Amino acid sequence: MANLKSARKRAKTSSIRYARNAAYKSKMRTAIRHFETALQEENKEQAQEKLQDVIKITDKLASKGIIHKNTAARKKSRLSRKLKQISS
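and the corresponding structure tokens:
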């Protein structure tokens, strides 16, 4: 347990940030899952909408520094490629 006042504050702040970041990441994973469900149903219009949601969430997380920008780019690229395979 932290003894200094600043260390106690940092521990508290860290746990709050951890919970917030975990919620954001969970939201991203849920959006990806919804997109993949739409792909399995072969519903192109719905999959396109879900992909836009995933891209929006992923970009927001990358801009906030919750995930790395290259991780965001890689996820978006792979999901876009999956949609393109279904479309053709």
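(Above: one complete record from the training split.) Helices lie at 5-40, 44-64, 69-87.
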